[in-house]
Amino acid sequence: MYYLLMITECATRIENEVQHYATAHFPQGQITILVHGKDALKEAIHANNKFFITVSNCGELLYSRDKTVKSFQVPCFVPTQAAVKARKHMTHHILLASGFLDSARECLRTGKYHLSIFMLHQVVEQCCMSLIRVHIAYRADIHNLKRLLHLCDGFSPALSDLFLDESEEGLRLFNLMLKSYSAARYNYDFHVEAADAERLCNQVSAFFEMTAVLCEDKIESLAIEAEVYKHLKKESEVYYG
Q1: What is the pLDDT of residues 210-239, one digit of tens each?
Q2: Which domains does the chain have, with CATH numbers?
Q3: Stretch (H or E) spanning 129
């Protein structure tokens, strides 16, 4: 599995096209690609963004048309506010996910199974966005659940295993949820069986619970990192002061 960050000269987002090309031409493995403009990268680094700073300092440069990129100086990440920001983002996404989950359960209760599946899609999307923002500080604006789950694989492979277990039945249900994103709204013939909706509701409920636990654990870890950083910085100032 590979994760690539492509930096382009212009701000035009070509992420979908690039991802489709990689998926179609390199089926031997999983490649997840993020694409951002050069100016966006600079602004993010200037704003102390953990994701872009970490990738710039720790990632391996595979190719650059501009040789000066190799000497690009990036400061170290300052973690003092990481836990606070992560908590803010988690609260936002988990609140949305919780509302969608309540709606999915109500639709399931009243027999609106196609709408229940659509709401479950939204739950997984918001959970993934929360996990990604909290764990790697990346603001994902991706709606494709498979791509979001593959991003989550970078820090917790067990999450995608809940849906992408490679069994025929598991993949069928996951693809049904993927299809619901547009079909539930625009396809008059989209039909969902009660048993499928119920099983997916149970899976997504478990995913929601896992998300909350993993995010809380990571925020606690970020808070400890912040305290350690502050302590070391204070000691350094005393020593060199």
Answers
A1: 999 999 999 999 999 999 999 888 777 655
A2: 2-71 (no CATH), 82-226 (1.20.120.330)
A3: helix 113-136
With both helix axes pointing from N to C terminus, report the angle between 168-186 and 145-152 in degrees, rounded to the nearest 10: 130
Tokens of 239: 């020593």
pLDDT at 50: 96
Q: Which residues contact 197 (CB under 8 A, 6 or more apart)?
A: 108, 113, 116, 117
CA distances from residue 3 to 6, 148, 217 in whole angstroms, order as listed: 10, 12, 24
Counts for the chain of helices (H) and strands (E), in that order = 9, 2
Cβ–Cβ under 8 Å, residues 238 and 102: no
Query: What is the Cα Rg of the chain in Å?
Result: 20
Decide if 29 contacts 2 (C-beta within 8 A). yes
Residue 43 or residue 67, greater confidence: 43
The reported pLDDT for the residue numbered 72 is 65
Contact criterion met (CB below 8 Å) for 86 and 137: yes
Q: What whole-number distance in Å separates Cα of residue 236 and Cα of residue 239?
A: 5
* CA terminus-to-terminus distance, the chain: 47
